[in-house]
Amino acid sequence: MKWVETTLKSVSLGKPQYGANASAVDSSGKRPRFVRITDIDDNGVLRPDCRRESDLENIESYRLEDGDFLFARTGSVGRTYVYRKSDGDCIFAGYLIRFRLNKKLIDPQFLFLFSKSPAYRNWVATKQRVAIQANINGGEYASLRVPLPTPREQRRIVELLEQADGLLRQRAEADQLADRILPTLFYKMFGDPATNPKGWPVENLLKICSPKQWPTISSKEILESGYPVYGANGKIGFYDSYNHEFPTVLITCRGATCGTINVCEPKCYVTGNAMSLDDPDENKTSLEFLECYLRVRGLRDTITGAAQPQITRTNLGIVNVFTPPPPLVDNFSEMRRSIGKLIGDMQRATDELQKLFSTMLYRAFTGELTAKWREAHLKELLAEMEQQARLLHAPSENN
Predict the structure, then answer these.
(1) Is the dihedral of CA 163, 164, 169, 171 positive or negative?
(2) Residue 244: is its pLDDT beyond 70?
(3) How far apart are CA 399 and CA 394, in angstroms?
(4) Percentage of the chain surpassing pLDDT 90?
(5) What is the DSSP code string of 200-258?
(6) Is the pTM of this model over 0.90?
């Protein structure tokens, strides 16, 4: 039994609607929340920390109803959100487009999960126009072709994918907790770098290591295999030689992620987009201590330049580093290595789960995921298909 494929317009009630072109104002709790693209995270959830309201007087035509489906038309083009009553009273902003779906034909959550699929992402990539900013308009979204299993099969697909997505969310929560372990341990053992409550001796960063930017290699020189290459944001490929034999603390020193701390692996090439903290004095610090100290301290005060943020060796001269007794540093370093192994194992588990979910997404919208289930419920599904066909050919309900 083959699925029907139709357009978003055919499963919608009325035409797409653009959001309100109004200013966002501080939240007073007296008006509906003003939902903007930036309020919606990558998982299609409203961010709790950026609630704003609107100064718009006439809000009724922009008030969201349960199941309303929003698409981003510019900025984060293709981002989607399904409104639920549990999100509270909301209206939506101008860079979003609302589709009110015919729930007899399509489950909003089914469409939301479809918007995470490779087929949808490819469609967005081919449709978005790039002028000053990429965009897709309401008419183009209305032409989006969507697979349309029967409502019962849609619910089955949603059930299976939400189970897998729930596991991913649990993994993400566990990963977030794990990320807090090291800073918590550091604060407990050494205190806050900003106040030095335990009165440790301090040494200037430039005296306990030698920050250096190595020559940058061009993208044409990057290879598919060889020694790992580290750029501004971690590993970026491979090269035929290395300039660092041992793991080294790296600081992103150019671009939007300026100040990020990484650690390279042995025998790698570090480019000039990262400042490598070479030759650390083993009598005063350790790789693990220095990495965690700089993460906890942060390097925002060393960044200069607005259009092109950067950190120079001179800028790092304002950074002072605790130098606790070596036995305490060694103890911390040993615990850091153990925790790092645990976090690495957790990350690999998360990666495997993400691969599984991606595979399930692909199979869900090609019909493979529910193929056997569909065969087992063929009689009921055929009856639903007839009803579905009648609804699709009833323009008064869909347009």
Answers:
(1) positive
(2) yes
(3) 9
(4) 75
(5) --EEEHHHHSEEEPPPPPPGGG-BSSSEEEEETTEEEEEESS-SBSS--EEEE-BSTTT
(6) no
